[in-house]
Amino acid sequence: MNRFCLAFLFAFLGIVSNATAANLQCLADIGANDATFITPMYNDVLAGQAPTQENIDANKPKMFGLVAANVILQCLNGPDRNDFQTVADSKEFIIPFTYKDKVKYKLQVDTAKLFDYVNLPTGFLVVNKRTYIPGDVIKKSDMPTDYFFSSDCSDHYVRLNLSDDAGVNVAGQSAFAAYGGKENEYFLDFPVEKNCRAFPGLVLGDFGGWGAPEKIIAYTNYLDAQGAAESFAKALQNTSCANQNLAVYLVSLESMPAQKDGTTGIVIGAGVGGGAAAATLTAVLASNPVGWVVGAVGLAVGGIIAGVSSLFYKDLADIQQVVVLKGPYIVK
After folding, report:
1. CA-wise closest residue to 50 among 221, 58, 228
2. What's the pLDDT tens digit per position in 13-55?
3. pLDDT of residue 282
4. What string of DSSP letters covers 251-286?
């Protein structure tokens, strides 16, 4: 193995672990795509220079941005969408590719660091159906029109005060420490015919008491969202939400139908970076895949800043559909 290959292999390596995602089709697709990965890496990230350790270190933000854009394109919104969760569950993952000199390389990427660059608005859905799987689209019209959770589980009326003892509130105060924990209160959005705010069953937060704004509890860092979902579901066990056939799901809050090559599917909204700096990758994919790819990659290598807070504080909006990313976490 030559020195360039060695340098690239360790460029993003953090803690060495056996939990490495390799041989995934979406990662192979990234490494085989000249337009979205090889050429931008060579021309825009490395400015025509060889992939030495020095060059990689000097351009890490751009490189992470480029990889993030390609993970969104190929692993989250590509034909092998289930690969995304495998990548997220790994400590690091490997992208095999052939560089301009035809030498084969393996780019080993630290997953936690990479997800600092992936902006994926993710919320928490509680619903009385335990059979959804990742990739399922849940439309607002699919949801129950009447309450599917008891008032002891989550308040049915919140204009004046929320119950301190409601299961969702107790679990939310335990799981959402990043949102203030016990300083705020949490409840499930209501059915459509019962004054729904955004989407039935989404976890909402009441920030600041009477008259304060209500927000959708959401994260942009998917790894942080996973941790919060696991804590939330665990805290719901053996509460007043038990024995109601409920399950918790991690869901994408931004998605839309898209058509490509005569096939209709769903594009999950995501971007590179964080907060207002994110490049939303949604509608353009449907009408102009090439333009979307070029724009996404250009933004990805244009100087991305990591370390952006994963909290989203998403305003209430009329959400017509969500896409299951992970779950179910069964409430018992």
Report:
1. 58
2. 333 334 567 789 999 999 998 888 888 888 888 888 876 667 7
3. 39
4. EES-EEEEEETTEEEEEEP-EESSGGG----SHHHH
| Residue written as token pair 């969702």 | 168
Contact 284, 294 (CB under 8 A): no
206 φ, ψ (degrees, to nearest 5):
-105, 110
How wide is the angle at C-alpha 112 spanned by C-alphas 110 and 117, nearest 5°?
A: 95
DSSP string, 32-77: H-IIIIIHHIIIIISTT----HHHHHHTHHHHHHHHHHHIIIIIIS
Main-chain phi, psi angles of 315, to 5 degrees: -65, 155
Quick check: 144 and 128 in contact, CB under 8 A? Answer: yes
Q: What is the pTM of this model?
A: 0.85
* Mutual angle of helices 289-300 and 60-70, in 10-degree steps: 150
CA distances 289 to 76, 256, 293, 294, Å, are: 15, 15, 6, 9
**Residue (of 208, 294, 314) closest to 251 by Cα position:** 314
Question: Cis ω on the peptide bond leading into residue 328 (within 30° of 0)?
Answer: yes
CA dihedral angle for residue 236, residue 241, residue 246, residue 247, rounded to 10 degrees: -10
What is the structure's pLDDT at 187?
A: 96
